[in-house]
Amino acid sequence: QVQVVESGGGLVQTGESLTLSCTVSGLRFDGYQMGWFRQPPGKEREGISCISASGITYYTDVVKGRFTISRNRAESSVSLQMDSLKPEDTAMYYCAAALSFNTRNGCGQIKSWGRGIQVTVSS
């Protein structure tokens, strides 16, 4: 059974940092691209960052330069370091294991989703 579990969310103030973590079990971690998506209140889910199985990274423009994605093979985990947070970063954040990756759009063909974790940035 595949499990994708996020942790590390919470409430922070504008300008602060937060690190999200995601652990994966039940699949061969090295064979999957790993992505972070988010869904702000009242909006659709969007992909914000992805890291390929080989370590190539993708960021959407709104987070580029502020967020850093990384993966840890030994722990079957992926992290998202979020710096200089803004109120518009407030959203439910989801981790996903994906089958495909490209440098223009990030992760695609999602295999498994996490349940999501809330990040709230106060002004």
List the helices and strands and how they pair.
Layout: E1 3-7, E2 10-13, E3 18-25, E4 33-39, E5 46-51, E6 57-59, E7 67-72, E8 77-82, E9 91-102, E10 106-113, E11 117-122
Parallel strand pairs: 2-11
Antiparallel strand pairs: 1-3, 3-8, 4-5, 4-9, 5-6, 7-8, 9-10, 9-11
Poorly predicted tracts of residues: none
Q: Summarize the amount of helix as a percent range.
A: under 10%
Q: What is the overall pLDDT average?
A: 97
Number of extended strands:
11
Number of distinct helices? 0
Q: Which structural class do you get from the secondary structure elements? A: mainly beta
3D architecture notes:
The chain has 123 residues and is an all-beta fold. Strands 2, 4, 5, 6, 9, 10 and 11 form a 7-stranded mixed beta sheet that branches. The chain is globular, with a radius of gyration of 13 Å. The mean pLDDT is 97.
